[in-house]
Design a protein that fits this description.
With 225 residues, the protein is mainly α. Helix content is 64%, strand content 2%. The chain has a two-stranded antiparallel sheet.
Length: 225
């Protein structure tokens, strides 16, 4: 009697959607759609729960699936959003000065330029959409690091006045990047259902690989369906 082998779920969609939604909320904030003084919950809540908690859960599941790339990326970005949310809650509670928090986020953004560059290099053996997602995320971190690290008490930065002109470039690139994450998440979910039904997934991710190598069914995190 043979035992039925159950197909493992792929946590990539959860992780990529959690990251993408958090980035989208932060980007909307940076572009000026929401007031920094009155609507900070728009930024804190998604960073705390989607970017922090859900990304951490996805990371643990990726480790259980043996996917080092996905697990490490999700865990580190989860850490970024958790620190970000904690620091801004601290501003609201009067624990931290806004200028100190801005410099902290700038330092983290600089560190994540390095980490994202490493992930981006790794993605050249995965697929084009993920590669572009990480490339634009790299640009986002650069566009956050420069103004935040140069912010002064007079509210000016290397990019102009904070936040009106200083963070807008990061916000617009972040919105573009969040759209790419939706593409990846949709591909993971929709292609999985198509393949379970015996059909070829309809959403391409344009996998990198040698000619003749069967890579079309790989997910962004490097797993096979």
């Amino acid at each position: 009697m043979t035992e039925e082998v159950k197909k493992k779920g792929d946590p990539t969609a959860l992780g990529i959607f959690a990251y993408g939604f958090s980035l989208f909320a932060l980007s909307m904030y940076a572009t000026g759609f929401f007031s920094f003084s009155t609507e900070s919950i728009v930024m804190i809540a998604p960073a705390l729960f989607f970017g922090g908690l859900f990304l951490l859960i996805a990371s643990i599941w990726e480790y259980n699936n043996g996917n080092t790339f996905g697990a490490t990326a999700f865990a580190t970005y989860s850490g970024f959003f958790l620190v970000f949310a904690f620091a801004h809650i601290g501003i609201k509670l009067g624990w931290f000065a806004p200028l100190i928090v801005a410099h902290l986020v700038g330092i983290m953004a600089f560190a994540f330029i390095i980490m994202t560059f490493i992930y981006w290099i790794g993605s050249f053996k995965m697929n084009l959409v993920l590669n572009l997602t990480l490339f634009f995320l790299l640009i986002v971190f650069i566009l956050y690091a420069i103004p935040l690290l140069t912010l002064t008490a007079s509210n000016t930065t290397a990019f102009g006045t904070f936040p009106a002109t200083a963070l807008a470039p990061a916000g617009w690139v972040g919105i573009l990047d969040s759209i790419l994450t939706m593409w990846i998440g949709a591909a993971v979910i929709i292609n999985d259902r198509w393949e379970v039904a015996g059909s070829h997934g309809p959403i391409p991710l344009f996998p990198f690989g040698k000619k003749g190598e069967k890579t079309a069914s790989k997910t962004p995190a490097g797993q096979h369906h």
